[in-house]
Specification:
Elements (H helix, E strand, L loop, with lengths): L2 H16 L5 H12 L4 H24 L2 H4 L2 H21 L4 H15 L3 H9 L6 H25 L5 H22 L16 H4 L4 H32 L8 H10 L1 H15 L1 H23 L3 H16 L2 H10 L6 H30 L1 H4 L5 H10 L8
Helix pairs in contact: 1-7, 1-8, 1-9, 2-3, 2-8, 3-6, 3-17, 5-6, 5-7, 5-9, 7-8, 7-17, 8-9, 8-12, 8-13, 8-16, 11-12, 11-15, 11-16, 11-17, 11-19, 12-15, 13-14, 13-15, 14-15, 14-16, 14-19
């Protein structure tokens, strides 16, 4: 295996491990709702707090140009390490919602040094066909995000705190792999001068701006769908006697995205990143619109439908990252990716809370239909972007 391929696999595996702390609180929410007597909106803060922390983290990382000025591998390592520590704090110290939300918020800040920085690490190793290489990394992130649900599905008899500590160990391992096992890539650019305005100046470039709007529409749907699927499934399954494990289904719905990210990236080699992103937005928007009908399907049909939705809801994500990296100044790639992620995740904090609120008024059957707003507007923005194959 050549050095670039080995580096890509190690970076992707590290991101998979480090991202296991992202949805650890979300996966624990079902049990904590009973233990701490939480409402649907209250429990949603176990996810929203991470998103808010990530938003603050991305703005701090971007404004300080951390992913560009400091050694990229060191930024990833220390972020994964601190994320493991704060997630362990959530497991060992929090006794009620406030403490849990605080530790989840701090965990989210550290994740700003994992996801966007991981993308820059990949960009340091490859110049051509970046879309499908990022597809592998984002696919790993997707699977890593789903890991807490698998941990809960397989370890249902264990204390939730022990399962959270396992996620912290995985995050620490991911950071160590990047720090020790991966050298700097051949396309590592010299550190640019500090420029706080660089985080916003990238939006002056029309191609960057249009793909960013497409990404923002994608993000309105993605994390709300991922984080609230358990509630949607639970409400659907409650209509009939079903022995299906909700955590296991949610793990599958999220985890299946690893295949679509890689496959979508591979297809983008021939048709371009824009075409893959557009197709994904249109199909996932259609699923949003049909979600009320899908809700009434029996589990044997409902689960395959959600798996198909899980394929298209994430397959455009690496394509947006590739488009962003191609349409911003090379020396500020890390900053551009970070600020785009920060704004995108700010949108997820709104959509998660909004859909949780909507569910209390119209029920889970129709709540996901409101997610269609995002991919629809995202597709409109992408239709104005000039195609470019790489």
């Amino acid at each position: 295996m050549n050095k670039p391929a080995k580096a890509l696999l190690l970076i992707s595996f590290s991101v998979l491990l480090a991202s296991s702390i992202w949805f650890s609180g979300t996966a624990a929410a079902a049990g904590l709702k009973k233990i701490w007597t939480l409402s649907e909106v209250q429990s949603s803060w176990l996810t929203i707090s991470v998103q808010l922390g990530f938003i603050l983290g991305t703005f701090l990382y971007a404004l300080l140009n951390m992913a560009d000025i400091f050694k990229t591998r060191s930024v990833f390592f220390f972020s994964a390490l601190l994320g493991a520590v704060f997630n362990a704090g959530f497991a060992l110290i929090s006794k009620a919602l406030f403490g849990a939300v605080l530790f989840r918020f701090l965990t989210g800040i550290t994740l700003a040094g994992v996801y966007p920085v991981g993308m820059k690490l990949v960009a340091q190793w490859f110049r051509e066909k970046l879309g499908w290489r990022l597809g592998i990394m984002v696919g790993a992130l997707t699977l890593g995000t789903a890991i807490p649900y698998l941990i809960f599905a397989l370890g249902a008899d264990f204390n939730w705190r022990y399962l959270m500590l396992l996620a912290s160990l995985l995050s620490l391992a991911g950071g160590l792999i990047v720090k020790i096992g991966i050298p700097d890539g051949p396309y590592l650019t010299a550190s640019p001068r500090f420029d706080m305005r660089a985080a916003f100046r990238v939006f002056k470039f029309r191609p960057f701006r249009l793909q960013a709007f497409g990404y923002f529409g994608h993000m309105w749907e993605l994390y709300a769908f991922w984080s609230l699927s358990a509630s949607y499934l639970g409400a659907s399954f409650s209509r009939s006697v079903s022995a299906v494990s909700v955590p296991l289904v949610v793990f599958s719905v999220i985890g299946v995205g690893i295949f679509s990210c890689i496959l979508g990236g591979w297809i983008s080699r021939s048709v371009g990143e824009k075409a893959v992103a557009m197709a994904s937005l249109i199909v996932s928007c259609t699923f949003c619109v049909l979600s009320g009908i899908i809700f009434n399907l029996p589990p044997a049909l409902l689960i395959p439908a959600l798996l198909l939705w899980g394929i298209f809801v994430i397959s455009d994500s690496p394509q947006f990252s590739a488009l962003a990296a191609q349409s911003c100044p090379a020396e500020y790639t890390g900053t551009a990716l970070t600020i785009q992620n920060g704004i995108g995740f700010a949108i997820t904090a709104v959509s998660i809370q909004f859909i949780a609120w909507v569910s209390q008024h119209v029920g889970w059957q129709w709540a996901f239909a409101f997610l269609a707003i995002g991919p629809f507007l995202g597709a409109v923005a992408m239709s104005r972007l000039k195609s470019r194959q790489t």
